[in-house]
Structure formats: C-alpha cells, structure tokens
Amino acid sequence: MKLNIALLAGDGIGPEVIDQAVKVSNAVAKKFNHEISWTAALTGAAAIDAVGEPYPDSTHEICMAADAVLFGAIGHPRFDNDPTAKVRPEQGLLKMRKALGLYANVRPTFTFPSLIDNSPLKRERIEGTDLIILRELTGGIYFGERGRSEDGNTAFDTCTYTKDEVVRLAKLGFEMAMTRSKKLCCVDKANVLETSRLWRQTVQAMEKDYPEVTVSYEFVDAVAMRLVQWPASYDVLITENLFGDILTDEASVISGSMGLMPSSSIGVHTSLFEPIHGSYPQAAGKDIANPLATVLSAAMMFEDAFGLKEEAELIREVVNKSLAEGIVTEDLAGKNKAYKTSEVGDWLAKNI
Ligand code: IPM
Ligand code: MN
C-alpha cells in the first residue's frame, strides 16, 4: 500500500520525537511491503520564524493532499510571557484544526502493566483503566467570539455550539462505545451552561438509536474527581472542547507519564495523529524526550487512517517490550539507565 503522510514536526521536542516515529514507521513499512512518502511542512514557531505565520497555506495544501498528518508539538516560551504577541504558534494549531475540519479528538488513557507503579496514583485505583476521552475540537469557547472593552479592563470569550456539532461528535462516541464496553458518559455542566443543556438534550435524543449503550450524564467537576478516584469505571467519555482539554491532561497522569499517550483527530478532510504532550521546550535538542507517545500516535495512524491493524499492533507490542526491558527515557528510568530519545527510536525500529 502507498501511504502519503504529511509530517509536521513543529517546535521544541517535536522534531526529535517525530524522527523516532518516522524510523519506526519506515521499519513497519519495510516489513509489510508498504511504501511511505513523507512530505515535511512547517508549523508553529518554526513556521513563524521562517514565513511569519504558524500555519502557512503551503502547509495546509500539503496536509490536504496527504492521506494522514503526523504531528509533533507546537509552542515556544518566548510567546507565553508576551500577552501582546500578535502571532502565536498555538494559533497555527487552532487554524489547522478548523481548516482540516478536525472535529473529534480521540484521547485514550490506558495503563502499561510494567509501569503501573510509575503513576502517582495507587495501583488499586488505576489497574484496568482503559478509557477514551472524545473531545470536540473545532467549536466551543476556543472558536467563539472574544474581545476587550475599549478601556481594556473587561474581556469576554463566548462558548457556542450547534446541535449538528454535538450530533457529529456524539455519533462517534456511540459508535466507539458499541465496539467497546458499551458505556458512554456525556460530560457537561448542564446545571449552569446553556450549551451543556443543548449537549445533554441532543445526546438524550440519540439514545434510542443505540439501545445497547448505557449512557450516563455527569458534571465536569464531578468527572474531574472521579477520573482520579475510579478511572477504570469509565469507558468512552464525550465532551466539549475546553472540558476535554482539561480532562485529558488530568487523565494522562494515570498512565505514569505524559510522554506516553497518543491521540488522533478525526477530520472532515483528513485525520491527524499527535502525542498529547506539548513542545517541552526545556528538553528541546537534548535528545532526552520520551518518543513513545508519538510512536504510539503513528500506530493509531496505521490502524485508523489506513486500516492496517496488524502493523499498529506490532508497534504497540514493540513499545510494550521496550518498557518491559527498560529501554526508556529519563522520565521513566527512575534509578536505572536512561536511554536517549534516538536510542529508544533505534531500538524500536530494530525490533520491528
Ligand atoms: C492541546 C493543547 C492545545 C489546546 C493548545 C496548545 C492550544 O493544550 O492540544 O490540548 O488547548 O487544545
Ligand atoms: Mn491541552
């Protein structure tokens, strides 16, 4: 099979972790007789430096022409402490999500048997956790109207959702739940927010089409608590953009390192695969970042974008083997030897 993949390495540790995912993907392609054509494109602060904007048209064209996009990370600290900066790397990410129609962000959280004691949460709480947070990604407060009063002392951001946006996301949630343990949790703040009441009403109306799925409706504050108390009780959770942003960072703690969790964003035009961690600028260029979240994102890409399940499974197996054998970066090494980012990538590619 011929796989056309756009490669957006981005900023910080992005290029280093992307390199490892490319090595592993190429090894898989070789083994299964696929031909991957990678097309690199600029994004984030790297694109601002090169062409003055974080998601240039040339990058968009490359993404639109590709079968899938593999993405590293974007963000640079020089923008974080400058609230007046007119162009920010994150704008590129949001523009890309909107332009590619990436409306559903799939963020799984699971535990690795060999790492269970790495989690700050007790083993008995997290054992058996295997959940997916399905985050709406192109609506809500991220894309609502925002502004400042003339004197600059009042600011507003608005959250808007349409029924169609909720239906499209919830449909994926129901379908995903059908292939798993048939439990769906709709996370909202319907005791306060009108958009949440629309979400709840819309999902309730869809229940009749999926009689086998048990749906629960929970407030986001309560879910934030239960996620660290009883994460194994959840299966598929659906939620709006900002709640999903916050809950997925929280959920990543369960697995023991933010460097482990992959994600995919399902889109109207193409789909995108990326680690859930950020650009980790303190580690950039040091060859110390954990590449596994990106490698596992490549596994999701093989399976979800190309239907290549066996290839994806092989990547996951080799990742599990590396963890079990302690071929890990410093975030997971504890008192044992820490391997470099590139060494972990080489080891994985060799073991494919
Ligand atoms: C994420 C990130 C982004 C978001 C930022 C970088 C804009 O935190 O992908 O979760 O808030 O969506
Ligand atoms: Mn986030």
Automatic annotation (TrEMBL):
Broad EC category: oxidoreductase
Residue positions binding substrate: 97, 107, 135, 221
Residue sites binding Mg(2+) per the record: 221, 245, 249
Coiled coil: none
Quaternary structure and interacting proteins, as annotated: Homodimer.
Co-factor: note: Binds 1 Mg(2+) or Mn(2+) ion per subunit.
Location(s) in or outside the cell: Cytoplasm
Protein name, per record: 3-isopropylmalate dehydrogenase
